[in-house]
Amino acid sequence: MPHAIRFYETGSPEVLRWEAVDVGHPGKGEVRVRHTAVGLNFIDVYHRSGLYPVQLPATPGLEACGVVEEVGEGVDDLKPGDRVAYASPPMGAYAQVRLMPADRLVKVPEGVSDEQAASMMLKGMTAEYLIRRTFPVKAEHTILVHAAAGGVGLILCQWAKALGATVIGTVGSDEKARLAEAHGCDYPIVYTREDFVTRVMEITGGRKCDVVYDSVGRDTFMKSLECVRMFGLVVSFGQSSGPVPPFEVGVLSAKGSLYLTRPTLMHYTAKREDLVMSADALFQMVLDGKIRINVNQTYPLREAAQAHRDLEARKTTGSTVFVV
């Protein structure tokens, strides 16, 4: 019988259990997928900890790559043996085998490995909508990417560099600074010893940035507002340090009639055509060599708790996958 990670209460990584599960056959519009690799993302921590409430018991995970084993009624564009990937609800990716809605799956092209696909779908499509749709980055723009050595950060830096933009990034160590620089970050700032607002002002000659991509949240948000020019945009798309505290909306006016958005991938890929478009754009950037997807850490799926500990302790860089 296949196994999966389950949790019956929210809390620390210790709530995650490795259990046998009964998967069954796919229903109408569904596909049974045997996973080969599963992606690890910070949203998994949010679900496990209770920051984002979920119905319990639950299996975490929103991203994986695998092989179609069986298709249900009405599924005519997939067949057994197809290699597929996804990064969307419903939760349940931390499993050897699962059922998945067919319209949330995309075929993985030759030239992209299973581990790459599992590690880049959520992070890569997030980067795609952030840099092409939330704020269409162009060569004349200067951007600030927080957590530039993280999974989304490394892809954002490369994608922006391919567009000709000037890329500033914050990182937590010299090692991460070198990693970010190797992936297109022109000006990595080690925030543990430098004030990133001061450095942004120096780098831009006081002009500040056109857009700030902030996945850190509480620890960076208010200072992110200091880093954008008049009419600039702050994109708050994560909260690895905790939720952004309530603030007076008039601050946006005082700091230059700023724009603020809190987008999610699930909205940007809600329509099937948008999902396919986003995935195709990402795959093409990878196949063209403009974006390198490096899987820097792997764990057996049954060791999900340890992977969560390492992610929360900021011991990981780039992408992490579970090998199934």
UniProtKB/TrEMBL annotation:
One of its GO terms (molecular function) is NADPH binding. One of its GO terms (cellular component) is cytosol. SUPFAM superfamilies: GroES-like (SSF50129), NAD(P)-binding Rossmann-fold domains (SSF51735). InterPro entries: ADH-like_C, ADH-like_N, ER, GroES-like_sf, NAD(P)-bd_dom_sf, QOR-like. Keywords: NADP, Oxidoreductase. Residues 11-322 form the Enoyl reductase (ER) domain. The keyword Transport does not apply. The keyword Nuclease does not apply. Coiled coil: none annotated. NCBIfam families: PRK10754.1. This is Quinone oxidoreductase. It comes from Pelomicrobium methylotrophicum.
